[in-house]
Write a structure and sequence with these properties.
mainly alpha
């Protein structure tokens, strides 16, 4: 990931243009320095952002495994509940439960 931002930085320095939108940096302004500062800040945050993302991927993978483990019991429960509804619908209305 760093290489993308490093390439942005290099391209901006060489061409004096934004490598994303291709807009030139105005002469006599600090646009180029501002661009470089923004890219450098992003470069510094990349390792932390990567760690956070990796942790989220791990947590979501574990959650997915738990959900997949529940698929069969949930299916069985739905089948049993459906069977119970059918048997209740066919009972006598006298209240004796037969």
């Amino acid at each position: 990931m760093n290489s993308i931002y490093e390439r942005f930085l290099t391209a901006g320095q060489q061409r004096h243009r934004c490598p994303v939108c291709d807009r030139g940096f105005a002469e006599g302004t600090n646009e180029h320095q501002h661009f470089e500062a923004q890219v450098r800040q992003t470069l510094e945050r990349v390792p932390t952002m990567r760690q956070v993302s990796d942790r989220q991927v791990e947590q979501l993978g574990q959650q997915l495994q738990r959900l997949r483990a529940l698929r069969e019991p949930a299916s069985e429960l739905a089948r049993l509940q459906q069977g119970r509804r059918v048997s209740q619908a066919t009972r006598c209305s006298c209240g004796l439960g037969i």
